[in-house]
Specification:
This protein is an alpha/beta fold. It has 12 helices and 11 strands. It has one domain. The strands form 2 sheets. It has an 8-stranded mixed sheet, with helices on both faces. The chain has a 3-stranded antiparallel sheet with strand order 2-4-3, with no helix packed on it.
């Protein structure tokens, strides 16, 4: 069975991509705007791509190597966008804008394709792929390893929320779990509500046992977060699960709402992220399942270019990362928006994205195997953009 998996590493809180990807040819302008939170020129890692001699933060050496090897790529100047927008159009309100810009909850909802809907874009992609198909596994192919199900909520299938490797059910172990098992298996219940509740309990406890047995077949060889470890094992087990397609949501460790102490905070987090992103691919290679997996980062929004004390305010556009063996990497997707470009920065120096995140997600859906009609239904704003496919894949 040929499988494909998309993994979304979500950076909750609004990630500041402007300190992650920096054009060396425009370093002086960058340093002037960023002030105390600017990275030093000598600390940056040249990537030898892009029109502005793009570099990456010095704590991403492994990601830099993946980009240079052609297995990863930055996505530049992207964000929540309903139609192409300039600073003047934003000021005049002459275009359709995402609602409540700079609000965490609203922009996360928009980014996940769930604003005023009961499902997320990832869940709907899986709905479309599995239309008229049977999924034999008790585990859904729409999976989150976090408490947030929004992105993975589907309309025709449940989203599986997997928070550990099957060791516990709701944190219950030992005699308590045994007692719950006895209650759930009691055949004397007569009332419909009692029988339904009993079945739900039984399925939940059995599901944890199933996961524990499944995951025990795949010993971990790297020290990753729990969410990433679960994701890697689910990808390795895709054949057993009967999953031709999977989408898995993983929360990146830490929060990214950096209103203060941004310089030190991101320096520390980037060391963790660099190892996590690279180790995830290494683990998939160890399992022999890396060939058809693509990873992408996502976040609420970017941050303001000018710092507020030693942090930054909520922004709009940002830069993201894409990696995996199928990726046509070693290049930059999108255009780096010059720091002094009056058309794509608000007065408060918030980047207005030129690319919509929708274009990235639609490109992934096309790689998944969806047709253009399905893509238009899932991403209705895509018709407003001239480029439907960003070229992530050869």
């Amino acid at each position: 069975m040929s499988t494909k998996t998309i993994v979304i590493f979500y950076l909750y809180g609004g990630h500041d991509g402007s300190n992650m990807l920096i054009p060396l040819d425009n370093y002086d302008s960058y340093a002037s705007y960023r002030g105390d939170i600017a990275q030093s020129f000598d600390s940056l890692l040249p990537l030898d791509i892009g029109h502005n001699n793009l570099s990456i933060h010095g704590n991403f050496p492994r990601m830099a190597e993946m980009i240079k090897s052609g297995m990863a790529a930055p996505i530049l100047g992207t964000g929540n966008l309903y139609e192409p927008t300039t600073a003047q159009q934003h000021s005049d309100k002459s275009v359709s804008l995402p609602p409540f810009l700079f609000s965490h909850s609203h922009q996360q909802s928009v980014n996940k394709g769930a604003y005023q809907q009961y499902s997320g874009w990832a869940g709907r992609v899986l709905d479309a792929w599995h239309e008229n198909k049977t999924i034999p596994s008790p585990i859904s192919c729409s999976i989150t390893t976090h408490s947030d199900r929004t992105l993975m909520s589907a309309e025709t299938m449940p989203a599986s929320q997997i928070l550990n490797e099957g060791e516990t059910w709701q944190g219950v172990t030992g005699d308590k779990l045994t007692a719950i098992g006895r209650i759930a298996s009691d055949a004397s219940y007569d009332h419909l509500v009692e029988r339904v509740a009993s079945q739900i309990l039984t399925d939940a406890v059995d599901g944890q046992t199933y996961l524990k047995d499944l995951f025990s077949q795949y010993p971990s060889s790297t020290n990753m977060t729990t969410g990433a470890t679960i994701a890697a094992k689910l990808i390795a087990a895709a054949g057993q699960l009967g999953h031709e397609r999977q989408i898995i949501h993983v929360a990146a460790p830490g929060g990214y709402d950096t209103h203060a102490e941004q310089f030190d905070t991101l320096n520390s987090k980037y060391q963790v992220l660099d190892n996590l992103y690279a180790d995830f691919i290494t683990e998939l290679e160890n399992y022999g399942v890396a060939d058809q997996v693509v990873c992408i980062t996502a976040s609420d929004f970017g941050r303001s270019l000018k710092p507020n004390s030693r942090g930054t305010d909520h922004g709009w556009g940002s830069h993201h990362l894409l990696w995996g063996k199928p990726v046509n990497g070693g290049q930059a997707f999108g255009e780096f928006i010059g720091y002094d470009d009056p058309d794509y920065w608000t007065g408060a120096k918030r980047m207005i994205p030129k690319l919509s995140d929708t274009q990235s997600y639609a490109t992934l859906a096309r790689w998944f195997g969806l047709n253009e009609s399905q893509i238009d239904s899932i991403f209705p704003e895509l018709v407003n953009f001239s480029t439907r496919d960003l070229g992530f894949f050869s």
